[in-house]
Structures are given as structure tokens and as C-alpha cells.
């Protein structure tokens, strides 16, 4: 049996898990787990702090990757084959309908979870120093998620897809000077057609997922390097607030300096940097607040993974992803709506194209990116940042209200209708 | 290598690198702009004048146009694409108006905006007679709504 143990040892390299050293080594000697620290703050594991929204979003992305790859085996990205393949997936392919449902509902769920995750990070003030840049990376991931969902929307090549993308890309073409050209570049033509379907497919299965993976790696890496998850607000101690928000480069310590070497020679920075390294320094009492990532964090993450997969599977068993009749450029369904997360914009566009198509989305993206640099208030306590919270909440609520209006209260000709019409008078 | 040499070579090198990146970026953008569009052609024949009745306009779904034929004034061709977000408008003979299903824009018989968010009136396209006696529509040539082809 010794040789089995030796082979096992050669794979895992670590000490037995019964020891503290083994628990630490499990994390930092393992290529998958080493993005975790060996120990994490106990309070950060509480569900009520983060709701595990970041993890859930990531797990949804994993579901989308796996189901997406499966769907690719049966999908040809040109009309009308694309639509026939959808019908095949729906009725002929073993488990095809279930996989497509999972892909569709996980995609919607990911848009929702990215948004909720952003709200959580805002309300806990976790975008503040030193985490400003990771907030920006997060905003990029939000935009990429919307891009992925939007490009995926066209692929079924049904009426819903065709007109949502026609309306959606026309919203973008209101951008001054470049709007129309960008639309043509995206569509590969003047209208949504064969070229557009192929381009959306390339973006959906290759370009955007690669970018999401890249940004996710940076996002996770920065979570660790910026000192792990931010400390829950209820654990902030008064005297510690200042020190905590200046993790990384405490004001009292001299900034990093490069020592002058001999006059005629230049060294690489890494060799001669002096000063205090940019790490969070942990005091003994803080050390007592931490637990080993294995098993405490991993078990919780595994539970979150299983809960996410189970939920999406359950939804996919009972709710079918919509598939309307094949795309018909000549007949516009009445009303024609963009994907739901753009319905707020479409509602604005129905009043003013420039406002809804250009001004509001551009300002929203710029404002989101700039939040950590505009908000210089170092405190993370809600009572110290009433203005920031009110302002952010106003935009969140306005966005949600506009989406609700666009989804449920707009009928044929974009006229006001009561929401129950959608239930009673479905076209099919 | 002295400082002057280092800086001048360095500047030249950086300039070369930046231009290489710039040219490559331009090439990528140009690559993405199709040289040939395989969509429906902008200029096409729609048939003989006799194919089109007097009275309500004929809607050609693939071309997304309305062909009007008037006994006194001749032929005119209007775009069926709403100027707001590209939906296909419908023509209602009773009130002689174009209605867009997407955001409720309403256009007059001349294509002018009556209600709704559409920023400009519907386009009218040039229609001409070819040598073989067919009507030809050119979507690249926008004409005023008063334009008519007498056959």
C-alpha cells in the first residue's frame, strides 16, 4: 500500500489534512485552490454579508460554459439552419430542450446576480481604497455579461431574437458620428442578416467568453491582493476604521522607494525596492478571527455551487425557454421588445432616442466606473455615507422601475396596458 | 551608449512601435468592414407597372417598401422601415396613415411624423422605368415625397 500512498503524495504533495500545515498546503500547493488564502476571516463566511453573490455569478458562468459547449455541438450559425437546429434541440436531441432551458435561465440569472453583486459591493462600501480598481474590473464584467446575453439573444433566429436585436442595435446607432458605423461593423451589413448572425456567434462563443475569463482571473486575483473580502460593517471597530481603509500603504509608513545603486548601472525594480511591502498586516487579535479555507470556506462554496446548479436545473425542468416562429424581417411583432435588461433603455428611447440610446447609457457606464474615484469618503459605515447610498438607490430603483414598465406595462404600439394582458392574451 | 543616443533610438523605437500598433489596429477594423455585402441589393426591379393596382399601396415584404399607384399622379415608393428603431410600419387605408408597431409612431400619407418618437419622416425612394419596361427602385436615392413617376 506504500506505493499507492507515494503516488498519491506525488500528486497532492501536501501533508495529511489532519495537520494545520496540510490544510494550508491543500490551498497553496493546488493550482485550482491557490487563489484562496490559506485562512479567511470568519465573519466573511457569513451568508448575510455577501449572500455569496460573486460565487453564484461565477457558478452560473460555469453552467453557461458547459451547457453552451454542449449546445454548440448541434448549432449551425446561419439562417435558416440556425432555427431548424433550435427546433431539433427542442424536440429531437436527447436532453436538448433541458440543456437549452438551463443555458437560457442561467444567462438571465447571471445578469441578475451580477447586478445584485454590484449592489452588495456598493452598499457595504467595498469599492473603497484599496479596492477601487477591482470595482472597475467588476463594471467591465457587468458590461461583458450584458454583451454575452445580448449576442446570445440573436442565435435562436426566431422572431423574438430578430426583432430584439433589430431594436437593440438601432438604439446604439443613435450615438453621434460613430453610432451607425459601429452598428454596421457589428452586423456586418445594413440589416440583421446572415452576416450579423455569424458575427454575433463569434462574439458569443469566442471573443466575449475569453474576455470574461480574463477579467474574472484579474477580479479574483485582486480580491486576494486587496486583502480578501472587505470586513463586514458590523465588525468594523471605531479606532480601526482608518487603518482598514488604508490597507496596503499606511500613511505613516514611508512610500516605496528605489535605492540608488551604483551610478552606471540600472537594476530591475524587484531587486532593490525597500520599504514596507504592500500586504495587509494582520494583528494577533485579527488572526484569531480567521479560520482555515479548508474546510470552512470550501464547504460553503461547494454548497453554493450545488444550490446554484440545483436551482437552475429545477427551473429548467418546469419552465421552457421561449422559441417563437422563425425570424421574418417583413413582419414586426407588435410590440417588438429588446431583451428585458434593455427595456429600461427602450422605455427612455420611446420618449427620446438620443436620451435613451446615448446620453443615459454613456453617463451610467462612466458614473459606475468613476464611483470609487469620486466617492473620497473613507468611511464604510452606512450612517457616514447617506448621500452616496441615497443617490445609488435612486438610480437602482429608477432602472428597475423603467424595466418593469417596459416589460409589463407596454403593449401593442408601445401603448399603456395593464400587466395582466400578457398573461391572458398571449399570442400563441 | 550615451544618454542622447539612448533617447533618440528610444524615441524612434517607440514611434515605430506605436505606428505598428496603429496600423495593425486600422487593418483589423478594415478587415471587419465587409468589402461585399450579401444582403438584399439596394437597387432592384419590382415588376411591370401593370402589376400594381390603383388605390391602396402594395407592400413588398422582402424589400420593405410600399408601392403607391395613383391614376393622375403615377408611381411613388415609400420605405416601410420606421426611422425610429427600424421596425416595419403598416399602412392603414381607412385613416391613410402609417403606424409603427414598436413605439407607436404614426406617419401621414406623405410620410411626415404625426405622433410618437420617430425623429424624421419616412423615406421615399426614386423609382424609374428600365428599358425592358419594368419599374426599378433605388434605395440609395432618397427623393422628396412629391416625387412621382408617370408611366
Task: Give an overview in words.
The complex is a heterodimer of chains A (428) and B (151). Chain A is 60% helix and 2% strand. Chain A is an all-alpha fold and 428 residues long. Chain A is globular, with a radius of gyration of 25 Å. Chain B has 151 residues and is an alpha+beta fold. Chain B contains one helix and ten strands, in the order αββββββββββ. In chain B, 27% of the residues are buried. Classes of the chains: A mainly alpha (428), B alpha+beta (151). The A-B interface holds A 163, 166-167, 170-171, 184-185, 188-191, 193-195, 329-336, 349-353, 412-415 and B 29, 32-34, 37-40, 61-62, 64, 84-88, 99-104, 117, 119.
Inertia-based shape of chain A = globular
Low-confidence residue ranges of chain A = 239-253, 257-269, 276-280
Give unreliable regions of chain B as ranges. none
Number of separate helices of chain B: 1
Estimated radius of gyration of chain B:
25 Å
Number of strands of chain A: 4
Strand content of chain B: 25-35%
Spatial ordering of strands, largest sheet of chain A: 1-4
Helix content of chain B: 10-25%
Sequence of strands across the biggest β-sheet of chain B: 1-10-9-4-3-2
Q: Bin the strand percentage of chain A.
A: under 5%
Helix content of chain A: 55-70%
Describe the biggest sheet of chain A? Answer: 2 strands, antiparallel
Report the oligomer.
heterodimer
Q: What would you report as the Rg of chain A, rounded to the nearest angstrom? A: 25 Å
N-to-C order of helices and strands of chain A: HHEHHHHHHHHHEHEHEHHHHH
Shape by Cα distribution of chain B = elongated
State the end-to-end CA separation of chain A: 66 Å
The residue-averaged pLDDT of chain A reads 86
Amino acid at each position: 500500500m506504500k506505493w499507492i500512498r507515494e503516488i498519491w503524495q506525488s500528486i497532492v504533495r501536501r501533508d495529511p489534512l489532519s495537520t494545520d500545515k496540510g490544510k494550508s498546503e491543500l490551498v497553496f500547493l493546488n493550482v485550482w485552490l491557490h487563489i484562496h488564502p490559506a485562512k479567511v476571516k470568519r465573519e466573511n463566511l457569513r451568508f448575510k454579508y455577501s449572500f455569496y453573490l460573486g460565487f453564484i455569478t461565477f457558478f452560473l458562468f460555469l453552467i453557461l460554459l458547459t451547457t453552451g459547449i454542449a449546445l454548440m455541438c448541434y448549432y449551425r450559425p446561419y439562417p435558416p439552419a440556425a432555427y431548424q437546429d433550435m427546433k431539433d434541440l427542442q424536440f429531437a436531441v436527447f436532453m436538448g430542450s433541458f440543456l437549452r432551458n438551463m443555458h437560457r435561465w442561467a444567462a438571465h440569472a447571471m445578469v441578475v446576480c451580477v447586478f445584485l453583486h454590484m449592489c452588495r459591493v456598493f452598499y457595504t462600501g467595498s469599492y473603497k481604497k484599496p479596492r477601487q480598481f477591482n470595482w472597475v474590473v467588476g463594471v467591465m464584467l457587468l458590461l461583458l455579461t450584458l454583451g454575452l446575453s445580448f449576442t446570445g439573444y440573436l442565435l435562436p433566429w426566431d422572431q423574438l431574437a430578430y426583432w430584439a436585436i433589430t431594436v437593440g442595435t438601432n438604439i446604439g446607432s443613435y450615438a453621434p458620428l460613430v453610432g451607425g458605423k459601429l452598428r454596421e461593423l457589428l452586423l456586418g451589413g445594413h440589416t440583421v442578416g446572415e452576416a450579423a448572425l455569424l458575427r454575433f456567434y463569434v462574439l458569443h462563443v469566442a471573443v466575449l467568453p475569453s474576455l470574461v475569463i480574463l477579467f474574472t482571473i484579474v477580479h479574483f486575483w485582486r480580491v486576494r491582493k486587496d486583502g480578501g473580502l472587505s470586513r463586514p460593517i458590523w465588525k468594523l471597530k471605531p479606532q480601526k476604521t482608518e487603518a482598514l481603509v488604508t490597507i496596503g500603504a499606511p500613511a505613516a509608513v514611508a512610500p516605496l522607494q528605489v535605492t540608488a545603486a551604483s551610478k552606471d548601472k540600472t537594476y530591475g525594480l524587484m531587486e532593490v525596492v525597500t520599504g514596507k511591502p504592500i500586504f495587509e498586516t494582520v494583528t494577533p487579535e485579527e488572526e484569531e478571527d480567521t479560520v482555515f479555507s479548508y474546510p470552512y470556506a470550501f464547504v460553503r462554496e461547494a454548497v453554493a455551487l450545488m444550490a446554484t446548479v440545483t436551482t437552475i436545473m429545477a427551473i429548467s425542468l418546469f419552465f421552457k425557454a421561449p422559441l417563437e416562429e422563425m425570424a421574418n424581417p417583413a413582419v414586426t411583432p407588435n410590440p417588438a421588445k429588446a431583451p428585458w435588461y434593455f427595456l429600461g433603455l427602450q422605455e427612455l428611447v420611446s420618449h427620446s432616442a438620443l436620451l435613451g440610446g446615448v446620453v443615459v447609457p454613456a453617463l451610467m457606464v462612466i458614473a459606475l466606473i468613476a464611483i470609487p474615484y469620486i466617492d473620497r469618503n473613507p468611511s464604510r459605515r452606512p450612517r457616514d455615507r447617506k448621500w452616496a447610498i441615497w443617490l445609488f438607490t435612486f438610480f437602482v430603483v429608477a432602472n428597475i422601475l423603467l424595466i418593469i414598465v417596459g416589460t409589463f406595462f407596454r403593449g401593442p404600439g408601445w401603448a399603456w396596458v395593464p400587466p395582466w394582458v400578457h398573461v391572458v392574451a398571449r399570442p400563441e | 551608449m550615451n544618454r542622447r543616443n539612448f533617447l533618440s533610438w528610444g524615441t524612434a523605437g517607440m514611434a515605430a512601435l506605436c505606428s505598428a500598433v496603429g496600423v495593425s489596429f486600422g487593418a483589423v477594423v478594415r478587415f471587419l468592414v465587409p468589402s461585399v455585402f450579401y444582403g438584399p441589393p439596394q437597387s432592384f426591379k419590382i415588376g411591370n407597372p401593370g402589376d400594381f393596382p390603383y388605390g391602396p399601396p402594395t407592400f413588398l415584404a422582402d424589400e420593405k417598401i410600399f408601392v403607391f399607384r395613383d391614376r393622375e399622379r403615377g408611381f411613388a415608393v415609400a420605405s416601410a422601415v420606421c426611422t425610429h428603431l427600424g421596425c416595419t410600419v403598416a399602412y392603414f387605408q381607412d385613416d391613410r396613415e402609417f403606424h409603427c408597431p414598436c413605439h407607436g409612431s404614426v406617419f401621414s400619407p406623405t410620410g411626415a411624423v404625426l405622433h410618437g418618437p420617430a425623429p424624421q419622416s419616412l423615406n421615399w425612394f426614386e423609382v424609374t422605368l428600365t428599358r425592358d419596361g419594368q419599374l426599378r427602385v433605388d434605395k440609395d436615392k432618397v427623393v422628396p415625397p412629391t416625387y412621382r413617376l408617370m408611366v
